[in-house]
Design brief:
The chain has an eight-stranded antiparallel beta barrel, surrounded by four helices. The protein is globular and about 50 Å long. It contains seven helices and eight strands. It is of the alpha+beta class and about 250 residues long.
Length: about 250
Amino acid sequence: MEKIKNPPKLMHSTYFNLGTSNSPEIIGLYMAKARECLSESEGMISFWIGTRAQDMVRPENDLKYDIAMHQLFKDKASFDLYNTNDTTHSEFVVYVNKLVPGATRRVMDAYVTNLIIGGNLSEAQHIGTDGNFPQSLFHDLYFSLTDKSEKNIKSFTDICLKYLSGHPGIQQFSTGGLTDINRDVSVRNFDVAVSIIYESKKAYDTYLKSKKHDEFFPATAGMIENTYIFDSYLKYESKVYSLTRF
């Protein structure tokens, strides 16, 4: 298990809404082009993309997107390079604007303060012929807090780390806080972000019913103003490189 405390890394999460053009064929083309053009850039550590988990419809679940894409960068400078000077990024924008002219996107950016990779897989992982873990679930939570002080945000983040990490079947766990990035597509209605990758829906269901997860709620009583959840099943996920390289 590799654990990094307080790294200056950035989790860039994009949620695409394809509107009425969200057929399986168009979604597949959209994701394939994203993988081709957006999965590698100087300073990008890892890349994931998948479709909204349509069986996850709790009141907190956001249902207004078709594709979720997540990119972990070693720092904000790496993201800025990708966003402004990466030619393949521009190629993707031109392609999808022709493919789905009315598509919209929302972006959540968080500075990663805790990152835990591996160490909790409950069963052997078998990579498919396309190089993917087809049943992995990317579970994103964004919390808006009643007390937005730095001290309270840290306290809440520590609680998330204590009760939401370390469950069987977790491939990766991270927490982060809102960045200073404020573009026209940026969503800034949260204070703490939690991203968890489960090896399967079964692992997520086990987590959801665990005593440790149940204890999260009394531990955070009165702290949460709103919760926003984005659940997606991964189609493509790049190799997660050793963080010692960064």
